[in-house]
Amino acid sequence: MIVALSHAATEEQIRTIEKRIAKENLKVVRMPGDDRVVIGIISSIPADTRYDLADSLDRMEGVDHITHVSRPYKLASREFHAHDTVVQVGDCAFGGKAVVVIAGPCSIESEEQMLECANGSKAAGATMLRGGAFKPRSSPYAFQGLAKQGLEIMRDVGKQVGLKTVSEVMSPQDVGLVADHVDMLQIGARSMQNFPLLVEAGNSGHPILLKRGPSATVDEFLLAAEYLLSRSDNDVVLCERGVHPLDRTYTRNTLDLSIVPVLKEISHLPVVVDPSHGTGHAKYVPSMALAAVACGADGLIVEMHPNPSQAMSDAAQALLPDALCKMVEDCRKVAEAVGRSI
Ligand code: PEP
Ligand code: MN
Known about the structure:
By secondary structure, this protein is an alpha/beta fold. The chain has helices at 11-22, 47-58, 111-124, 147-161, 175-181, 195-204, 218-231, 259-266, 275-279, 285-294, 321-337; strands at 2-5, 28-32, 37-41, 63-67, 87-89, 92-94, 100-104, 128-130, 164-168, 184-187, 208-211, 236-240, 271-273, 299-303. Strand 7 (100-104), helix 3 and strand 8 form a beta-alpha-beta unit.
């Protein structure tokens, strides 16, 4: 439920309204807008009290009108937060005019590899460096990542080259470790509904890149974001990375670009697109990156590698540094055509 206050509502009236809601043991958030202050009730309101409470609030001084919110997520919804959220990671602003480019390898493999990746990514126009130190692999025999050693490499290389960093955290007990080394936590697609992980990552107060689960509905995706937002004032960026495909013959996943305008309509959170996992093949990545920028994405996260044939994970989808450069140049033209920049 949303209680929209009248323009002239006084602080005292607002407090009285909040107290009335607190009497029902419901959690509220106050959302100052350009136009008026709005009070949102986040907890689910028992059906038998919903209408009585609405009637009672409607009659209180300072209240303009009441809106019932049917969506299960609140803090992630545009109804609760009308303006676009801009998530700031250092100088990188997700959700501003500029489209943020995050690039780097799938996995952190060595200092030398990371340095090459970071220099290539920066030269191409990326402002953030990606790379996994904890890798979610289907096979227990596949390379699992360098863990702490990888995070140390990433921290040092990020500083040296002047790029902000993002890396995946897979388990709740590693949240502190990853947050100590990188600027932004990544919650991977397979972990989108790992609720203890969401709680711990939410408590960290670190900016979070939340990837959509391969089979997650839009509501499930935004409820996962709600877990993060409900823990603290986290900065959350949503990431579409492809859903389970009908046909794996040609692409690894199906990049669901239609979710970008949908999320933009129903949520205020920035949306990033991952065309690398979305297609699984380097040759298709640039086309989907262009399409992502055209349909309103606030950022791209792209895998690259100086020597893809030697990559320890996701070799087939890694762009060479030159291909990344060309892709960003082309995306810049599309960005300008739709009123953005890179
Ligand atoms: C990754 O970014 O390397 C990764 C494992 O992504 P996802 O969780 O989308 O599969
Ligand atoms: Mn990968």
